[in-house]
Structure formats: C-alpha cells, structure tokens
Amino acid sequence: MSGALRSLLSLCAHMLWPVSCPVCGAMGEVICEPCLTPLLKPPPPRCLECGEPVPCKLHRGGGRIYSAGLYEGGLREAVLMLKGKYRVMGARLGRACARVLVRPDADLLVPVPLHLDSPRRYNQALVIAEALGRAWDIEALPAARWTKDAPSRSGMSAAQREALTPDFFAFDSVAGARIALVDDVCTTGSTLSRLAEAARGAGADVPAAFTVAQTPY
C-alpha cells in the first residue's frame, strides 16, 4: 500500500471515528500497538495490604498489586481516554497487560466497582478485566459493589482514600473462590486493600490485584 493511500484511509477513518493515538497522533486509532508496547514496563509490585513497596516488612505473606506500567506520559493519556468515552481502549490495554503480567492462580477476576452515583456508562475496570480474562482464560465477574456513597476516587485526597473501610463494599457469591482484583490505576492502593478485606470477609481468598498503571512514588 502506498503512503498516499495509507494517509487517505487514515483520514477517512478519523472522519468516521474522530480519535487519534495519544502517543504518535495516528488518526483513527485509539492507540497503535507499536506505541502501546513500549509503555508497558512493569514496576515493582506493591503490597495489597498497605500499598507499600514489596517486600513489605509488615505483611510478608500478604497479597500483591501488579501494574503493567507507570501512570505517566502516553499510558496516562490512554487510561484517561478509556475513562472518557473510548471503551475499546480497555480491550487494547487489557490484552497488552496480559502479555506483560504473570497470569494469577485464580478462579475469578473481579473489577473494582463503579461508584453508586457514577455518570459513566460503563465500568472501565470491568472492560479491562474482561480482556484480561479472555487472554488468561479466567472468568471476569462484577461481583463487588459499593454499599455507601463516597467521592469519586479520582477526586479523593490521600486522607479520604485511607478513610475507606471494608464495609464500603459488599460481594456476591465469592465464598471459597480464589479471586484477583482488577482496576485501571493504583494510586495509594487503599481502595484495592479495602476491597480485598471485604472479599476475604465474604469468604474469598485474594492473593493479588492487577492494574494497568500505578502512580510513581
């Protein structure tokens, strides 16, 4: 295919679907595969119990939070596009994460639920979990829910995140299951930690959580 024809097709795609790759600017692409792959450089895991770097002196046998990259640059822009209106970005990110993260020994992938009053039309964590599940052959199940109103996590301060308690969440039908939690971004790890506590209270084992990105320390 000639360069001119490729450019014409790209322009037509952009007119029909006005989006461009956040890394290289290619029109008609939520993100190009060659642009996404270099962004995924898994940082050291965090402790699922407290969010601190692993190995954690306080929770040596605790779960871990694994992320595919750092929440900065092109990866941050990709996540923001997913949180906006480009649901398909979740499938791209989930498939890519499955290639760089180690498959867990789990029965279920459970996404962090949307807030009770969220205006978003879909749960971005569920979209990621479904893509991971297809790649890893693990069922993705939206088994968790918020039980109380809380500020959107993107607007929470560190103190508000730490004030979350396990009773902010409830689980359905996870007793006896080995589950891995899924989210888009790990900021302090507190939401995942409280969600893990709630899941354990419902009878599940929670050895790990997975996110697309984590904020730099």
Could you name the key traits of this structure?
Rossmann fold, 18% strand, six-stranded mixed beta sheet, two-stranded antiparallel sheet, globular, 2 domains, 217 residues
Helices and strands in order:
Blueprint: H1 3-16, H2 33-36, E1 46-47, E2 64-70, H3 73-84, H4 88-100, E3 108-111, H5 124-136, E4 139-140, E5 144-146, H6 158-163, E6 169-171, E7 178-186, H7 190-201, E8 205-214
Parallel strand pairs: 2-8, 3-4, 3-7, 7-8
Antiparallel strand pairs: 1-2, 5-6
Helix pairs in contact: 3-4, 4-5
Explain what this protein looks like in three dimensions:
With 217 residues, the chain is of the alpha/beta class. It has 2 domains: 1-30, no CATH class; 41-214, 3-Layer(aba) Sandwich (Rossmann fold), CATH 3.40.50. The chain is 34% helix and 18% strand. The chain is built from 7 helices and 8 strands. The chain has a 6-stranded mixed beta sheet. Strands 5-6 form a two-stranded antiparallel sheet. Strand 3 (108-111), helix 5 and strand 4 (139-140) form a beta-alpha-beta unit. Helix 4 crosses helix 5 (124-136). The termini are far apart.
